[in-house]
Amino acid sequence: MGHLRMLQQKYDEAEEYYRKALALYQNGEKDAPEHAASLANLGKLFAEEKRFGLARDHVVRSVAIHQKTFKKVGSHNPGAQQVYGRAIAYQAWMLSKLASQRNDPADADKQCHTVLEFQSFLNTTDRESFVSACEQTIKSPPTK
Fold first, then answer.
1. Terminal alpha carbon distance of the chain
2. 2-139 maps to which CATH number?
3. How far apart are CA 91 and CA 85, in angstroms?
4. Structural domain boundaries of the chain?
5. Which of 10, 30, 61, 114 has the fewest CB atoms below 10 angstroms from its CB?
6. Maximum Cα–Cα distance across the chain
7. pTM tops 0.85, yes or no
8. Cα 77 from Cα 1, distance rounded (Å)
9. Could you tell me which residue, 97 or 29, shows the higher pLDDT?
10. Residue 40: alpha-carbon gap to chain centroid
11. Is residue 86 exposed (0-12), middle (13-18) or buried (19+ Cβ within 10 Å)?
């Protein structure tokens, strides 16, 4: 419902649904992949609303959970690795864009390195687009 409300640009309602989803993990497993997905959804909503600090905070927490889960499943479960690797790549891409908006080239560079590390989990079109943009970000000298 949160996603639907976000598409309808009913941001207050979307936020309410996403916060309800987060509340499900309040007393439960905080490292659950579903918790990470809810954090990412809320982060995307905040980015859409140009609440960049909140967006970054939620997406950073989401990436941390996905990275833990990615390591935990290991290579013995390639399907799960694909899901978490893809989430990490997409969310790192979002963080790199947020860093660029904040004029934080060091963070943009860090996030682009993460995108490059997990690029094999992206679909072909996004891989070409993200990798090209990240290679430019990493090669660009920091602005003062």
1. 43
2. 1.25.40.10
3. 10
4. 2-139
5. 30
6. 45
7. yes
8. 30
9. 97
10. 6
11. middle
